[in-house]
Amino acid sequence: MTGTVEKDPYTTDEMMTVAASRELRDGAVCFVGIGLPSEAANLARATHAPDCFLVYESGTLGAKPDVLPLSIGDGVLAEHADSVVSVPEVFNYWLQAGRVDVGFLGAAQIDRFGNINTTVVGPYGDPKVRLPGAGGAPEIAASAKEVIVMLRHTSRAFVEDLAFVTSVGYRHGGGSRQELGYSGGGPAVIITDLGVLRPDPETKEFVLTALHPGATVEEAREATGWDLKVAGEVDSTEPPLDEELRVLRKLRARTERARGTRA
Amino acid sequence: MDIGQDESQSIVSRSQDSGVRKAGKIMSLREAVAEFVRDGDSVALEGFTHLIPSAAGHEIIRQEKKDLTLIRMTPDLIYDAMIGMGCARKLIFSWGGNPGVGSLHRFRDAIENGWPEPLEIEEHSHAGMANRYVAGASNLPFAVLRGYVGTDLPEVTSTIKPITCPFTGEELMAVLALNPDVTIIHAQQADRRGNVALWGITGIQKEAALSAKKVIVTVEEVVEKFEARPFGIVLPSVAVNAISIEPRGAFPSYADGYYDRDNSFYEAWDPISRDRDEFRGWMERHILGVDSFADHLRSIDTEEAAR
Question: Which residue from A15, A112, A182, B131 has the fewest beta carbons nearer than 10 Å?
Answer without folding.
Answer: A182
